[in-house]
Amino acid sequence: MNSYRIALNFEDGVTRFVDCSANEKVLDAAFRHRINLPMDCSDGVCGTCKCKAESGAYDLGDDYIEDALTGDEAAEGLVLTCQMVPRSDCVISVPVPSSACKTGTAAFQATVAQVGPFGDAAYELVLDVADTAPVFLPGQYVNIGVPGSGQHRSYSFSSMPGAQRMSFMIKQVPDGLMSTWLGTAQSGQMLEMTGPLGSFYLRSVTRPLLFLAGGTGLAPFLSMLEVLAMHGTSQPVHLVYGVTRDQDLVMVDRLEAYAARISCFTFSTCVADPQTTHPRQGYVTQHLAPEVLHSGNVDVYLCGPPPMVEAVQKHFKAEGIAPASFHYEKFTPNLAVVS
């Protein structure tokens, strides 16, 4: 019997995955996994279980009333989980915190496989994980405990969801807690992890994509590109990768490899330092050609520090650009904010 993997992404950014059997309703599958999705009637009458299907194929049947789910709502991707029967893997946004559904973040362990420095710009942390480690959506992040500190730091996955090795692109911060530990980390060391987390993830690709990465904000896009390379897409995808200094421009060879694997993927890079030798000096907003904006018929994904996110928002407003959708993640060394 077929079964489908359903990602439930809660309002607080927590994501839990459940397996839904063929002809099983999502609400029933969630309850079977001890996740109490909102529900009053379970008969398609009250509308309490209404959620948003971000991706995937499904049937809703006709056993619900118009007051519970209107035709316009169904056309926009809203679903009643008490009636929804998946026909493929799906991602569902649940409009309540995970705590309201008696669930929360998963805790797991990982082992350091290798730590690779990129000069004084960044580290790549590669971890071995067990088959039981939680799956994540491309673009999400996880909390990693810093050994011996009692504290954690949040980092986006740069690896393919479901792989037995997880990787992360981590900015080198002088005297930073994680940076200091990475400088002495040894293979085989155990790390405590919690997650996955975040509402910044790749949705169904139905129109052109524009990826905007600032510094180590490139990490989630590497995960997204791996998914696009594995599953394919006919939509054009363009990435603009901006950094502060020449030496911060790392992993460009990986972008070149993705450009070779994904026929519709292109990218450009820029460096903000006025003294740069790079051919494109300036900020990301100065290198957004009209053809990558598709007159607004584009889904924009942005990951970078708060000033970059705010600059892009102001640029779009000033230029009268209204993307079909705009998803972003702001990050500082200790905090991530998604929208």
Number of domains: 3
Count the beta strands: 19
Structural class: alpha/beta
User: What would CATH call the architecture of the largest domain?
Assistant: 3-Layer(aba) Sandwich
Mean pLDDT across residues: 92
N/C terminus separation: 37 Å
The CATH class of the largest domain is identified as Alpha Beta
H/E topology pattern: EEHEEHEEEEEEEEHEEHEHEHEHEE
**Biggest sheet: strand arrangement:** 11-10-13-8-9-12
* Integer-rounded radius of gyration: 21 Å
- Overall, the morphology is globular
Corresponding CATH superfamily of the largest domain: Nucleotide-binding domain of ferredoxin-NADP reductase (FNR) module
Q: What does the largest sheet look like?
A: 6 strands, antiparallel
State the helicity in percent bands: 10-25%
Unreliable stretches? 335-339
Strand content: 35-45%
CATH topology of the largest domain: Rossmann fold
